[in-house]
Design brief:
About 85% of the residues lie in helices and about 0% in strands. By secondary structure, the chain is an all-alpha fold. The model has no long low-confidence stretch (mean pLDDT about 95).
């Protein structure tokens, strides 16, 4: 973990996972308590998410060959800001479905490239150890974001918290593009 270039990239990935899970912790509460969508609507939205994630994932190779893992990851992370944005504007199923579509497309890019990005950034020799460092950072992002999301929601309100997540995810995408 002593390589500064790798360390900065892992730090940017911590920022991403923190803001990713900051939102994930409050999305279900917002969906049920604020926009009052049903279980069946949530199921359809989840299905749309995963179908689009799958479709993007199977077509990702050409994009990454042309633009690289960094740009594909940054695009995916930046596009993940659309999910909470459309969710915050939603008053019913339609914008929730739009949010789910953007989320699936975005996660197809981000999830499909993140490990290759990490392995490409790791210094040669001992890549398993560098991947282990990434997993520690990933889990730290999950923990702090999952704790921070409900705290943020209680300090502001869920609607404001979603817009903070929008900005955080967009900034994380830009940071990965510029400094990753």
């Amino acid at each position: 973990f002593c390589d500064d270039r790798y360390g900065s990239k892992i730090g940017l990935l911590y920022l991403f996972h923190f803001v990713q899970y900051l939102g994930i912790a409050i999305f279900p509460i917002y969906q049920v308590n604020e926009i009052h969508i049903s279980d069946s609507v949530i199921s359809i939205g989840t299905g749309l998410f995963y179908i689009l994630m799958f479709l993007v994932s199977i077509r990702l190779e050409g994009f990454t060959r042309r633009f690289g893992y960094k740009k594909a990851l940054a695009l995916g992370v930046g596009f993940l800001s659309f999910y909470p944005a459309f969710l915050a504007m939603s008053t019913g199923p339609v914008l929730y479905y739009v949010a789910s579509c953007f989320g699936g497309i975005a996660w197809g890019f981000a999830g499909g490239t993140i490990y290759n990005y990490v392995l490409e950034a790791a210094p040669s020799g001992g890549r398993a150890g560098y991947l282990a460092w990434y997993n520690l950072v990933f889990n730290a992002g999950i923990l702090t974001g999952s704790i921070g999301g409900p705290l943020l929601g209680s300090l502001t309100n869920l609607h404001v918290a979603l817009w903070i997540v929008v900005v955080g995810r967009f900034i994380a995408g830009l940071a990965l593009l510029w400094w990753g």
